[in-house]
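In response to the reviewer comment on reproducibility (Comment 2.3), we provide here a single inverse folding case reported in full, input and output, so that an independent group could reproduce the run without further information from us. The C-alpha cells appear first.
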C-alpha cells in the first residue's frame, strides 16, 4: 500500500485521482482548505506556510500538488493576484515540507498546464521542440498572464532542491471527465442547447485527455523512474475547434451548432464571469515524452 498526499485534492482532478488511488488500495490524504468528501483522509492547510499538515509529507511515497485558485473567472487585478499567489505559494510550501522531511517522498508530481505553450497552428508542441509562449507578437495580455502564471508555477517547483525526490511537471491539457462542473459537461451543455458550433474562426487547436488516460498517465509517471521534468499529459491527436465541436455534436446526435464569433464570445464571457482564452487560444500539444517512454493511450482520438 502506498501513501499518497494530494494537495488541492478537493477539486475535480484531485477527486478523480483520489478515487482512483483509493480504489487501488492506496492510503490517500487530501490537503485542503475546506472539507473533501470521500473515503480518504483530509488534512487542513493554508496553502502558504508549513504547519501540522507537513507531517503527512514525511514518509509519503508520492505527493501530488494540484493547488491553485480556479481560473474560471474574470482576470481583474484581484483575481490575477490570487491566481498567481495560490499557485506559487502552495508550491513553495510543498517544496519546503519535502526539503524538511526526514523521509521525503520519492516523487513530487507538480501540476502545470498546456497553456504554457505558444498559440500556434503550424506545428504541435511537444516537450523537446515546443514553443513556450509569452513572447509571440500579438498575444493578448490576458493570454500572456496565463503563460506567466504557468512559468512561475514551474519555477517555484524547480527552485526547491529535493535531492531524494524526483520531480515531474505535469503540463496537462483539459481533462474530459463526466463529473459535474467540469469542462466536458460545459461543452456538452452548449452542444445540447444548439450552441455547439465553432468558437471564433474554429481553427484553434483543442488539446484534451480522457479522464481514464489522465489517471493512467499519472500512474505511469509514478511507476517509471526515468521520467522527470516537464511531461505533457494530452491525447496525441488534438483537433481544430470546429472539428472538435463537430465530433461532440455527432456523439450527441445534434445536427446543428450555432457558431460563436469572437466578439460574441467576449460578451458571453463577461456575462458568465469568465474569459475566452480557453476557447480561442490554440493549444496544439502532444505527449512526446509519454509516447517515447511506451505509454499507450486508450483514447488517442
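Designed residues, in position order:
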Amino acid at each position: 500500500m502506498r501513501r499518497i498526499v494530494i494537495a488541492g485534492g478537493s477539486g475535480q482532478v484531485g477527486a478523480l485521482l483520489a478515487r482512483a488511488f483509493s480504489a487501488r488500495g492506496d492510503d490517500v490524504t487530501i490537503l485542503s482548505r475546506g472539507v473533501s468528501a470521500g473515503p480518504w483522509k483530509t488534512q487542513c492547510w493554508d496553502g502558504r506556510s508549513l504547519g501540522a499538515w507537513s507531517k503527512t509529507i514525511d514518509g509519503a511515497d508520492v505527493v501530488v500538488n494540484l493547488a491553485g485558485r480556479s481560473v474560471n473567472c474574470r482576470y481583474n487585478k484581484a483575481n490575477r493576484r490570487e491566481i498567481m499567489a495560490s499557485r506559487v505559494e502552495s508550491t513553495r510550501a510543498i517544496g519546503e515540507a519535502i526539503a524538511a522531511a526526514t523521509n521525503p517522498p520519492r516523487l513530487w508530481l507538480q501540476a502545470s498546464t498546456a497553456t504554457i505553450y505558444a498559440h500556434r497552428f503550424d506545428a504541435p508542441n511537444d516537450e523537446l521542440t515546443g514553443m513556450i509562449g509569452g513572447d509571440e507578437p500579438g498575444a493578448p495580455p490576458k493570454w500572456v498572464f496565463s503563460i506567466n502564471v504557468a512559468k512561475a508555477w514551474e519555477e517555484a517547483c524547480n527552485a526547491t532542491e529535493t535531492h531524494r525526490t524526483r520531480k515531474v511537471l505535469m503540463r496537462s491539457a483539459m481533462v474530459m471527465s463526466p463529473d459535474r462542473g467540469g469542462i466536458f459537461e460545459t461543452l456538452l451543455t452548449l452542444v445540447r442547447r444548439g450552441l455547439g458550433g465553432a468558437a471564433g474562426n474554429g481553427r484553434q487547436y483543442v488539446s484534451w485527455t480522457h479522464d481514464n488516460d489522465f489517471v493512467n498517465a499519472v500512474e505511469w509517471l509514478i511507476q517509471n523512474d526515468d521520467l522527470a521534468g516537464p511531461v505533457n499529459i494530452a491525447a496525441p491527436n488534438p483537433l481544430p475547434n470546429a472539428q472538435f465541436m463537430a465530433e461532440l455534436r455527432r456523439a450527441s446526435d445534434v445536427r446543428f451548432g450555432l457558431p460563436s464569433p469572437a466578439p460574441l464570445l467576449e460578451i458571453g464571457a463577461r456575462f458568465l464571469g469568465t474569459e475566452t482564452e480557453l476557447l480561442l487560444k490554440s493549444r496544439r500539444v502532444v505527449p512526446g515524452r509519454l509516447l517515447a517512454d511506451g505509454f499507450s493511450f486508450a483514447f488517442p482520438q
